[in-house]
Amino acid sequence: MLTCPSSPYGQELGYQESFHTGFTGKVAQSSYAACIGDYKNATGTGWHLDEWPYFFFGNGHVPPRGVISRFGWSARFKDIPDGLSNTFALGEVVGQWSINQDFPYQSFATTSHPINIGNPDFLAIGNVDWWELRDTNPNQLIWDWALSFRSMHPGGAHFLMCDASVPFVTESIDHFTYMARASREGGEIEGSASP
User: How far, CA to CA in Å, does 156 sit from each of 16, 81, 92, 150, 172?
Assistant: First the structure.
């Protein structure tokens, strides 16, 4: 149910991030991830990494710029002044290419990088043990790209908007517009300069 029918990885298990649970095995993956916002990650564009409620939300810090946090918070309609039809709720991902996009534990992504960034690199790597990849080939870009929205569809990915519409968003979308759709109350004007 949470796997895109066109994904060749639909039945494969993948590694989960383990530092919270101590679990180091493989689990079922998801083809859909919550949009936590337009955060920069480490190497992308968008809001600064220091403003990312990565570990902190749930311990009294501010909610994320997106509509669903990594740790137990979600926006109500009144929390989305940018408009339900203008704001991403969920988007497509390839869960096997990230330790943060699995079914039972967590599944989130940002618009830090363009849609489908690095897909050829991930195809070459395949479904690997992410901790082993980090130890043997510490490539910050691959780790950063893994938190992006992507699909196996040529040219873009599907997104669920907060008004329940499901547009196909192309890879050619203006990046600032793409980031603006990830924030629920940024007040951005599409086509203006990046924050």
Answer: 25, 26, 9, 7, 8
What value does the mean pLDDT of the chain take? 78
d(CA 102, CA 114): 21
Pairing of strands 88-92, 108-110: unpaired
How high is the pLDDT of residue 56? 45
Sequence spans of domains, the chain:
14-180
| Furthest C-alpha separation in the chain | 46
- The reported pTM is 0.83
- For position 129, what pLDDT does the model report? 61
Instruction: List, in sequence order, every residue forming a beta bridge with 33; answer none if it has no partner.
Output: 91
Instruction: State how far Cα 121 lies from the chain centre.
Output: 17
pLDDT at 57: 45
Q: For residue 128, which of 32, 5, 13 has the smallest C-alpha distance?
A: 13
Closest CA to 112 of 124, 100, 126: 100
Residues with Cβ within 8 Å of 180's Cβ and at least 6 positions away in sequence, in order, are 38, 82, 86, 186, 188, 190
Taken as a whole, the chain contains a residue count of: 195
Q: Encode burial over 93-103: b for 16+ CB neighbours within 10 A, e otherwise.
A: bbbbbbbbbbb
Sign for the CA dihedral angle at 78, 75, 37, 35 comes to negative
- Integer Cα distance of 11 and 167 in angstroms: 25
